[in-house]
Amino acid sequence: xxxxxxxxxxxxxxxxxxxxxxxxxxxxxxxxxxxxxxxxxxxxxxxxxxxxxxxxxxxxxxxxxxxxxxxxxxxxxxxxxxxxxxxxxxxxxxxxxxxxxxxxxxxxxxxxxxxxxxxxxxxxxxxxxxxxxxxxxxxxxxxxxxxxxxxxxxxxxxxxxxxxxxxxxxxxxxxxxxxxxxxxxxxxxxxxxxxxxxxxxxxxxxxxxxxxxxxxxxxxxxxxxxxxxxxxxxxxxxxxxxxxxxxxxxxxxxxxxxxxxxxxxxxxxxxxxxxxxxxxxxxxxxxxxxxxxxxxxxxxxxxxxxxxxxxxxxxxxxxxxxxxxxxxxxxxxxxxxxxxxxxxxxxxxxxxxxxxxxxxxxxxxxxxxxxxxxxxx
Length: 377
Ligand SMILES: [Zn+2]
Prior knowledge:
The chain is elongated and about 85 Å long. The strands form 3 sheets. A 4-stranded mixed β-sheet has the order 1-2-3-4, covered by helices on one side. It has a 3-stranded mixed β-sheet with strand order 5-6-7. Strands 8-9-10 form a 3-stranded mixed β-sheet. The chain contains 13 helices and 10 strands. Strand 5, helix 9 (269-277) and strand 6 form a beta-alpha-beta unit. The chain has 3 domains: 1-171, no CATH class; 178-249; 253-376, CBS-domain (Roll). Helix content is 57%, strand content 13%. The chain has helices at residues 21-36, 41-71, 97-118, 127-139, 151-170, 178-188, 193-218, 221-249, 269-277, 299-307, 315-318, 332-342, 362-376; strands at 4-10, 13-18, 76-82, 85-90, 262-263, 284-287, 293-297, 326-327, 346-350, 356-361. The structure holds zinc ion. Zinc ion binds next to helix 2.
């Protein structure tokens, strides 16, 4: 995502902070100043610590998703921290509904675990304190610094309560919350995946509308932002499920290129760049003089050599010798998965007798998807 900085790397996964997170810091200062009326380092420190710990719990929640996904062979690109929560960006969705179920459950389970782990600390609080804390929460009578509840007492109460709230909020059965994924996984056991997604998306949009109505009614802008976020993500989720369905239905044959230019190991990269400039072909296959396939050459690699003034290099210095195959009759989804796994943006295509008949790349797939959409509309 644009405008984010990497703050850490845990288990090999980059943890990134979105710029809008800094708005939170401003907000903390504003809250403390407006409630106390002066610059109070003590309150400021405790509030900042609480926010820090809360977001650390969110990171652990996302790591729950990411590490469970890893068990099923799915990598996580990064974990993004936004003011409204975290997001583990998985390279792809787990294949089976059961795996999706576990990946989705793992996040909220981490928060339940944290709440249970820290629960014994609550014994430090007296009955009277609990009565005051709940009294404040229920009455909403404003100034919590004026009460006789000390910052550390708020802190341990919040540690347990907020983890439970994060777990419960995420378990709401509406996309894009984890509960929506759990629901879809359950429905997918019985229904077609696209129908299951439609239902979870619809519930997500209903939930978003409720949030927006609440925001309007009570002037709660935080609920409003979350409502908008939920609505858009539910829509995005449905669109990507529909695309996935299309990828499953179309075969490699529908997107492959049968006429293509051949490159040879001793060609200069300039020739590849020339072909790329003509805008018909983006990725290439490299053959030896007996016309046996040797390697693949992607657009990114060609552009990299052009940028670094390496166009006089030979193709063999840059072409990728490790690549995968796909068969004409396989689905486009299978082709996309193999591209992701092999790290190459192009695959040679074979017919059922194992003879090379063409190539497929992301451009071809996008083109086929666009045509299919236009045919339907
Ligand atoms: Zn989650």
